[in-house]
Amino acid sequence: MQHLFTPWRRDYVQGKVKADGCVFCRIAQLPPAKYEHEIARSSHTFAILNRYPYAYGHTMVIPYAHIASPEELSPAALSDLMLMSNRSMTVLRAIADPPAFNIGANIGAAAGAGIAAHFHFHIVPRWNGDASFMTTIGETRTIADTLHSIARQMRAAWADIYGAPDSNGQAPATSLD
Q: 37, 120, 122, 148: which one is catalytic?
């Protein structure tokens, strides 16, 4: 029998992941690049790896605004959300070449949102046959790399494709020009 070690999930499995306030707001308030799984920032949103991923490179694009639904976002923030989502997919294609993606949001607890009070998009790379025995029968997901390594690869690819972040940590060229 083989053993898969996923120590980063221990606190989650043991129910120890309980913090005061909004985890996304806390990450957004950190100085640029101080959160180890941060990929990029823009004027209205930021991209990070999901701490409990469904697949390799599972990324979240999160507005800075603490809102529960995209209906509350300004047109500029909505545009920025989509631009960051597209750029995240481009970067994931550069490092992992997935043939497909799931992209979407769970809006509200009844829809499955784990953090219902702070709207965010999920970008999940998909590969043919990735719903293997481990996922469907074994109820276990396997991720082929560490989150730290994936984040490092994504940041490097982002800088190669879009340029390095500015002094405020924001990704360049995030305007609609």
A: 120
